[in-house]
Design brief:
CATH architecture of the largest domain: 3-Layer(aba) Sandwich
Radius of gyration: 23 Å
InterPro entries: P-loop_NTPase (IPR027417)
Organism: Actinoplanes awajinensis subsp. mycoplanecinus
Strand content: 15-25%
Protein name: AAA domain-containing protein
Number of strands: 19
Number of domains: 2
CATH class of the largest domain: Alpha Beta
Region (Disordered): 458-481
Length: 500
């Protein structure tokens, strides 16, 4: 049995690649850096600089460059770098430490989080768990907003380190990585640490709600403390906004999918050119050959399945996971490789990297993404079975919730479409950020599976508002946006016989 996949209706239109594409980001980053220099020199009255990006645009690289440039300015003696979570600040501190030196970069972390710091990061930075332990030589202090924004922390910083060059505050610049994931009420605790804030991040992040909390103010234009903090400042006369126009992560044929999410970008290009990424598959037959062949072509791929038993819930679907398991078995048994063109910092091709599933390294090869915890528990059971059955090394196959996989990258993403089996669009299954994160993790291939009926759902469900890139207001996607996103997928239908 084979499946015929129909190509996407939204094809790649004019786009720049390689150094021509990378030049756009370099130029945008230079504009943001100049705005920061002007603010430090007081030739411009900027107090907020927002560098907006799509997923996989290399935004953290731009942030590190701006940190280095700020420290070279005569009116900047100390900066802070913050983000919402330790999983963001710890690797960032390590990279800054390797670039600037361990004597200049301090990872300011809670004592109970020390076990989370990998040895490579420990070797690259100075570590402090209390303000008094921060070395005087460190001019870059990296910590979460909870750590840097603790009650009384500003006074402790000034008492122990003294004010920065501005003469009153402990830092001259506050850098916020993954800024669109930091809610306004958390930013408020650190905003006063420096006269200038630089926010760098992906506008398609998941709504910045802390786990377990609800947001009764969502959609209220007057007060919404859980809104991503940069959304409060775009209209300000002291705010400078710069957009990164290029993404480094996707294949050329995934670019229409990225553009479907970031529709307000004037243009969006990708560094990878035609043929720069490839999957080398083992000999496959039947449905597996059809499905993985479609994924290997590079376009986002949607497989709809009909004839399955009913699921426990729309997003807890063991029968659909069973189909995925059957598809993965021959791929993992035969082994596969990823091939990727390397580029220098200017986007110029510079060699090739091949990663074999028998000896993986770097980013995980296949990641199964689920929405709810019970669903990822089922996916983890699948991963454990296949890992044991085929004696897979670490890094070949993992599972995660979408929320936990924010900021991560992998070669192939496999996910159940959030609308699979749904009877209507709701705030959860239509969340902009959750679908955007799911669709923008992969460097080589994206396979979305769903029960048959997505088109019928979107054709018949009542219209609902949606303002995915503009808070305040609902961040759920209207049906027209879902249809636009689906138009970028290659699509196939698998009909399961009743006796199967």
């Amino acid at each position: 049995m084979t499946i015929t996949f129909t190509p996407p209706t939204a094809a790649v239109t004019e786009a720049l690649h390689h150094h021509q594409a990378a030049h756009g980001n370099n130029q945008a980053a230079a504009e943001a850096a100049k705005a920061l220099t002007d603010a430090l020199s007081a030739t411009e009255k900027y107090d907020k600089i927002l560098l907006r990006a799509a997923a996989g645009a290399g935004k953290t690289h731009a942030l590190r460059h701006m940190v280095r440039q700020a420290l070279e300015h005569p009116y900047c003696s100390r900066v802070a770098v913050t983000a919402f979570a330790n999983k963001q600040v710890i690797p960032l501190a390590g990279t800054l430490g390797r670039e600037l030196g361990a004597d200049r970069v301090c990872l300011f972390v809670a004592r109970d989080r020390l076990p989370d710091v990998p040895p490579a990061v420990r070797d690259s930075v100075s570590i402090a768990t209390s303000t008094a332990d921060i070395p005087a030589s460190c001019d870059v202090i990296v910590g979460t907003s909870h750590k840097l924004g603790a009650f009384g922390e500003m006074k402790r910083l000034i008492d122990n380190l003294g004010p920065a060059d501005n003469g009153t505050l402990p830092f001259d610049v506050l850098f916020v990585d993954e800024a669109w994931q930091l809610p306004a009420h958390r930013y408020a605790t650190v905003a006063g640490l420096a006269p200038i804030s630089v926010g760098v991040g992906d506008v398609g992040q998941l709504p910045p709600l802390e786990p377990g909390q609800q947001n009764p103010w969502r959609g209220d234009p007057g007060y919404n403390p859980y809104r991503a903090w940069p959304t409060a400042y775009p209209a300000g006369t002291t705010t400078r906004i710069v957009d990164l126009p290029t993404v480094w992560r996707p294949t050329t044929t995934q670019l229409p999918l990225w553009r479907a999410f970031y529709t307000d970008w004037d243009h969006l290009h990708c560094v990878a050119g035609p043929g720069d990424r490839a999957l080398q598959l083992p000999p496959l037959t039947g449905v597996a050959a059809s499905v993985w062949g479609a994924v290997a072509d590079g376009s986002p791929t949607l497989l709809e399945v009909d004839g399955l038993p009913d699921p426990e819930a729309p997003d807890i679907d063991l029968p659909l996971l069973g189909v995925l398991e059957q598809l993965l078995e021959p791929l993992l048994e035969g082994g596969f490789s990823t091939v990727a063109r390397r580029y220098n910092s200017q986007g110029v091709p510079d060699g090739e990297t091949v990663v074999d599933s028998a000896d993986p390294h770097g980013d995980p090869l296949i990641v199964i993404l689920a929405t709810r915890n019970q669903a990822v528990d089922d996916a983890n059971d699948l991963v454990e079975r296949l890992t044991e059955r085929y004696d897979l090394p670490d890094g070949v196959l993992v599972a995660s919730t979408v929320d936990s996989w924010q900021g991560q990258t992998n070669a192939i993403t496999v996910a159940i479409h959030p609308l699979s089996g749904a009877e209507q669009l709701d705030d959860f299954n239509s969340a902009f950020g959750r679908l955007a994160v799911t669709c923008t993790r992969a460097t080589h291939g994206l396979l979305m599976i769903a029960r048959r009926g997505l088109d019928d759902l979107l054709d018949t469900t009542p219209a609902r508002p949606g303002t995915p890139l503009g808070e305040p207001g609902p961040r759920s996607l209207p049906r027209q946006t879902h249809q636009r996103i689906l138009s970028t997928f290659s699509r196939g239908l698998l009909d399961i016989p009743a006796s199967a």
